[in-house]
Write a structure and sequence with these properties.
Number of strands: 13
CATH class of the largest domain: Alpha Beta
Radius of gyration: 22 Å
Distance between the termini: 49 Å
Number of helices: 14
Strand content: 5-15%
CATH architecture of the largest domain: 3-Layer(aba) Sandwich
Helix content: 25-40%
Length: 393
């Protein structure tokens, strides 16, 4: 049986300049890192290695958990970790998943049911969209960070308007969920969580917040934007997701919410039930990160300085081409996949590793260089970035 149809589809993507490839050569190893999620430098500086060695120098960790958590893969250390993280973030309970992607599949594939409705910010992560598609609830987007548009949708649901066939008229729903990210991964802008919680509370909706790119960076001791916005105890906050593989330098994620939500996900979330659990060594690494990152106030302060410097420097370039606010993620719009790739190659040749983000990952016409700033970057590296960009403008 031929696989020619796969070659045809790949060829179509290649013709659009959108073919993805893994790369190992050079990989930016000798260049200034403007691309990784290691915002605080936990991985670069080996801080988890030090914390693990100090905590249990001879303990080591098993490389396999031997099964799903409902069979042989659960252990006391994992449940202790869930309780500790929940307490740190001020949540009643939590459930660890193998990744942020798995966690979003679990929430949105299992919780919203037939007769429910998910309203989601049009820029939410693919894992949320995929989770919604796995579930049985109706769903509608609202314009990015547009509180008025969301309120229109929520008000229409409360009035019982619509049959689900029009984007302007949401269907009636038993339960309404609002899905957002606290920091959006492509533009780096921050969601107005306090206002979103207020809207959800006024309309009886449940707010779900993905804190993947905020954990470790925002809020007291890096607790996230939910903490910074003061809504950790808000009745409208149904669930939030914290990942461990970005600023925290480990792997996996946790869903925080009520004890009932934890029990429900254990029973209904396929991405939790039907997968081998994280091994003990991963659980130890996550626990080590939660000992390390809350103490990195100097790194968070340095990161804020560099973000402010990047903003001042872009004003001397063409600020209309840039997106990004107070988060480490900044974006330089470079229309066209070929143009974005070419600029990334020029930057790499100049010692700056900033990766292109191409369509269809982002909408056609909004291709960009995604610049991730870190506490270990320097003003000189930022200046070099802008010199190369300006020379090619």
């Amino acid at each position: 049986m031929s696989d020619a149809f796969l070659d045809e589809r790949l060829g179509e993507r290649a013709e659009r300049g959108a073919l993805r490839r893994l790369r190992t050569e050079n990989n930016g190893a000798a260049a200034a890192d403007f691309s990784s999620n290691d915002y605080l430098g936990i991985v670069r500086r080996g801080l988890l290695d030090d914390a693990l060695a100090a905590a249990a120098p001879a303990a080591g960790g098993a490389h396999g958990s031997t099964g799903s958590r409902l069979l042989t893969g659960n252990c006391a250390a994992t449940e202790d970790l869930e309780r500790a993280i929940s307490a740190f973030h001020g949540a009643p309970a939590g459930l660890v998943f193998n990744s942020g992607y798995d966690a979003n599949l679990g929430i949105f594939g299992a919780v919203p049911a037939d007769g429910d409705l998910v309203l989601y910010d049009e820029w939410v992560h693919a894992s949320i969209r995929d989770g919604i598609r796995l579930g049985h609830a109706a769903s509608l987007p609202f314009r990015h960070n547009d509180l008025r548009h969301l309120e229109e949708r929520l008000a229409a649901v409360r009035r019982g308007e619509g049959d689900g066939e029009s984007l302007r008229r949401p269907p009636p729903a038993a339960h309404v969920f609002v899905a957002v990210e606290s920091v959006y991964s492509m533009d780096g802008d921050v969601a107005p969580l306090r206002e979103l919680a207020g809207l959800c509370g006024a309309h009886g909706a449940r707010l779900v917040v993905d804190e993947a790119h905020a954990t470790g960076i925002f809020g007291a001791a890096g607790r996230g934007v939910v903490d910074e916005a003061g809504i950790a105890g808000d009745a409208a906050l149904f669930a939030r997701l914290h990942t461990f593989g970005k600023a925290l330098g480990a792997h996996g994620a946790i869903v925080l919410g009520s004890a009932a939500l934890r029990e429900y996900l254990i029973n209904f979330a396929h991405s939790f039930i039907y997968t081998t659990a994280l091994p003990p060594e991963s659980i130890r690494a996550i626990a080590a990160s939660y000992r390390v990152f809350p103490e990195l106030e100097r790194e968070r302060a340095r990161l804020r300085e560099l973000i402010a410097y990047f903003h001042r420097r872009r004003e001397r370039c063409d600020p209309r081409r840039f997106r990004g606010g107070e988060a480490p993620i900044q974006a330089l719009i470079v229309t066209g996949n070929d143009q974005a790739r070419a600029l990334a190659e020029a930057l790499l040749a100049g010692g700056i590793d900033a990766r292109p983000i191409l369509s269809p990952t982002v909408r056609r016409g909004t291709e960009r260089l995604r610049v991730c700033l870190h506490a270990f970057n320097t003003e000189e590296e930022i200046d070099r970035f802008f010199r190369i960009v300006e020379a090619r403008s």
